[in-house]
Amino acid sequence: MVSETEDVEKTSSATHKEDIEKTLSATHIAADQAVINSLKITSADTVYNDEAIKVLAQEHGDDAWSPEEEKRLLRKLDWQLLPILCFTYGLQYYDKAMLSQAAIFGIRTDLDLNVGNRYSFSSAILYIGFLFGSYPCSLLAQKYPIERVAAGLIFVWGICLMATAACTNHQGLWAQRFLLGLLEGGVSPIFMIVVGGWYRKQEQALRMGAWFCCTGYAGVVSPLINYGLGQIKGSLSPWKYMYLVAGAITIIWAVVVYFFLPPDPIRARGFTPRERYIAVARMQENNTGVRNTHWKGEQVMETLLDVRFWLHFFIALLMMVGNGPYSTFTPIIVQNFGLNPLNTLLLTIPAGFITGCIELAAAFAAYKFKNKRCIIMLCCQVPTVVSCILQWQLPRSNKGGLLFAAYIIASLGGTYAVLLGVVMANSAGYTKRTLNAAGVFIGYCVGNLIGPLLFKPQDAPAYAPAFIGVLATALATMALIAIYWYLAVRDNDIRDEAGIPEGFDHAYEDDLTDRKNPQFRYTT
């Protein structure tokens, strides 16, 4: 039940909204921006509106700001936010991909994973945990302070990671991997919400890519760390030291996230009232809102009936089938060349470096070139297609060609890095944006679940059926991206032809979704 105070606030907000609507109807077009800017927000209904209006209602000085002020704010934000997002995501990939490196240091023998598909399922079950964890974590992040939710998840998953060293059979490892996925499942959706609340649409692509490319660069650092840990001659198997060290680092990092992650412009510490105002006011351009803690059933239904939601989901799903050979089987494929475990680790480093560079380059291109994101995603799929054909057709004696194919297969990461920004840019309404963030991540999980299971022990060492499957899903991903591109362009044209120009007058009113706000335009 809504409190009396909220009733008063809603009545005042409704009156304020009616005044704006009268101005709009009097002109028969979108209200003049000067008129909108002259209206003063005197109440803050945060049940139906975005919480950003609380900042706009406070004393902040001149409504206008200079480009220099905005640049200083953006620079300050980048320095405070991006290092935390980048290190956290790199750490997450380091933790969850540890299995592929532990595989060449005895974990398959110690836990009896060489039987049937036990090893493949050990990788896949992590993403079943992701599936169960992503939506609850997203809901927690909307209802409670994001930085506390993120820090709590990271702290517990660090403990869970260390517990891997106590596993004595494959059943114990499966349970641990499921729980790890359950805890890590909220990181991507939470980070997407954070970036979507701080940055303009055109700025989001580069920032999303900045933290996502750390999945590749973590593949450069982790083999070096595990190269050293793999040489320990102690009472434990080398793979156990790997998990203990990674878990301890994760637990320490959770404390950093708790105290230093800037969650959104409304609650972030260390920003002046003037900086908060600029951070919120400039986000009107997105037409997506900043934060609203009230779960809205009508936005849930709209999301589930929106074809874009399902395109986000299936693009992520089909694309990430190709991540199976990269994250789970690359070290094993390289070791099949006849190398020892330590040299195998060193030869996997270029794969991580190339993947990280492709992801970062794709994000930078999306930032630099407006409305070229679908083209960039299509381009990033091409090396994955080429890799699958090479892995399928080349003879096993052509080690150079096979190694090159292993290095470029994860270029699909560039597609996903850009897709994250597209999802945030094209989803308005806080509940709808939260659902889209979780939806694309669920697609990511299902794809990663399917990928490793395509690699059957009887198909080793070529795994031809698996690479045929990855090739098919990569081509299907390209087809869905083309459909998404067409729909975005079509809907923008329809709105243009209706005579309603793009505008930002109602960015924080009624927490409008992209479908209900005729001034909204889709990023392509």
TrEMBL record:
<feature type="transmembrane region" description="Helical">
    <location>
        <begin position="119"/>
        <end position="137"/>
    </location>
</feature>
<protein>
    <recommendedName>
        <fullName>Major facilitator superfamily (MFS) profile domain-containing protein</fullName>
    </recommendedName>
</protein>
<feature type="transmembrane region" description="Helical">
    <location>
        <begin position="346"/>
        <end position="367"/>
    </location>
</feature>
<dbReference type="InterPro" id="IPR020846">
    <property type="entry name" value="MFS_dom"/>
</dbReference>
<dbReference type="InterPro" id="IPR011701">
    <property type="entry name" value="MFS"/>
</dbReference>
<feature type="transmembrane region" description="Helical">
    <location>
        <begin position="467"/>
        <end position="487"/>
    </location>
</feature>
<dbReference type="GO" id="GO:0016020">
    <property type="term" value="C:membrane"/>
</dbReference>
<dbReference type="GO" id="GO:0022857">
    <property type="term" value="F:transmembrane transporter activity"/>
</dbReference>
<feature type="transmembrane region" description="Helical">
    <location>
        <begin position="210"/>
        <end position="229"/>
    </location>
</feature>
<feature type="transmembrane region" description="Helical">
    <location>
        <begin position="400"/>
        <end position="423"/>
    </location>
</feature>
<feature type="transmembrane region" description="Helical">
    <location>
        <begin position="241"/>
        <end position="261"/>
    </location>
</feature>
<feature type="transmembrane region" description="Helical">
    <location>
        <begin position="178"/>
        <end position="198"/>
    </location>
</feature>
<keyword id="KW-0812">Transmembrane</keyword>
<feature type="domain" description="Major facilitator superfamily (MFS) profile">
    <location>
        <begin position="81"/>
        <end position="491"/>
    </location>
</feature>
<feature type="transmembrane region" description="Helical">
    <location>
        <begin position="149"/>
        <end position="166"/>
    </location>
</feature>
<keyword id="KW-0472">Membrane</keyword>
<keyword id="KW-1133">Transmembrane helix</keyword>
<feature type="transmembrane region" description="Helical">
    <location>
        <begin position="309"/>
        <end position="326"/>
    </location>
</feature>
<keyword id="KW-0813">Transport</keyword>
<dbReference type="Pfam" id="PF07690">
    <property type="entry name" value="MFS_1"/>
</dbReference>
<dbReference type="InterPro" id="IPR036259">
    <property type="entry name" value="MFS_trans_sf"/>
</dbReference>
<feature type="transmembrane region" description="Helical">
    <location>
        <begin position="435"/>
        <end position="455"/>
    </location>
</feature>
<feature type="transmembrane region" description="Helical">
    <location>
        <begin position="374"/>
        <end position="394"/>
    </location>
</feature>
